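ARCHIVE CARD
CATEGORY: sequence design from structure
SOURCE FIELD: tokenized fold
FIELD CONTENT:
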């Protein structure tokens, strides 16, 4: 936030500066308090020794670099701990909103939304499969930036469904999944399989976050509409 408020950077340079400073801050903190754990960060060269580690911190120092650079609020910072390939703990900060949501103190889910379902999609490239499912259930599409901001919008009750099929990496969704699961939401791949982390290839292309009661219908609709 200090970098964004200064006049030293603008445009892409602002995003790069935010990524770099946040990455350094997080990695230095982890090295101090969890020196024996492995780390997978979007902004670091991948170290294959993490594959033999039980505990791996999965970090996205700045999720939604474009939104950060444009002065928007829908960007996030992700810090998660994978234990045995599972998103065991995580926190998603929404600095522009002054909020941090964490798995150890998950917020209570608000009551179900009474109107048409609100489905989150990418600002720039809404996935065709998600749009087709939205049409099938009469959902309102809500365009938003980062994956963390989208997932936390469901946790906060600002939206109902985050169905993503456009491609992601482990750092994009590990922390959001940990927080959403702790809050009592359904989290899975779009075929209903669990999300598994700390794999050799960190590409993890799809996920579904929604209220548990909505998951069976949504998973069935996805299966009927293959990408």
């Amino acid at each position: 936030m200090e970098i964004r408020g200064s006049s030293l950077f603008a445009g892409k340079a602002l995003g790069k500066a935010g990524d770099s400073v946040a990455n350094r801050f997080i990695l230095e903190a982890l090295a101090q308090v969890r020196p024996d754990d492995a780390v997978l960060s979007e902004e670091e060269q991948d170290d294959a020794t993490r594959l033999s580690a039980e505990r791996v911190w999965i970090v996205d120092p700045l999720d939604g670099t474009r939104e950060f650079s444009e002065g928007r609020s829908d960007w996030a910072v992700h810090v998660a701990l994978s234990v045995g390939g599972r998103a065991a703990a995580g926190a998603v900060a929404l600095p522009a909103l002054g909020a941090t949501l964490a798995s150890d103190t998950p917020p209570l889910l608000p009551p179900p939304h009474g109107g048409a379902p609100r489905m989150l999609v990418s600002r720039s490239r809404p996935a065709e499969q998600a749009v087709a499912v939205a049409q099938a259930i009469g959902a309102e599409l809500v365009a938003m930036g980062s994956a963390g901001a989208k997932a936390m919008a469901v946790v906060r009750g600002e939206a109902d469904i985050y169905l993503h099929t456009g491609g992601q990496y482990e750092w994009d969704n590990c922390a959001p999944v940990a927080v959403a699961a702790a809050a009592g939401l359904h989290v899975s791949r779009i075929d209903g399989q669990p999300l598994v982390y700390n794999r050799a290839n960190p590409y993890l292309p799809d996920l579904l976050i929604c209220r548990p009661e909505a998951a069976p219908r949504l998973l069935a609709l996805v299966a009927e509409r293959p990408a």
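CARD ANNOTATION: The beta strands are 38-41, 55-63, 76-83, 86-94, 99-102, 118-122, 140-144, 161-164, 186-188, 207-210. The chain is about 35% helix and 25% strand.
SHELF: design records, drawer C
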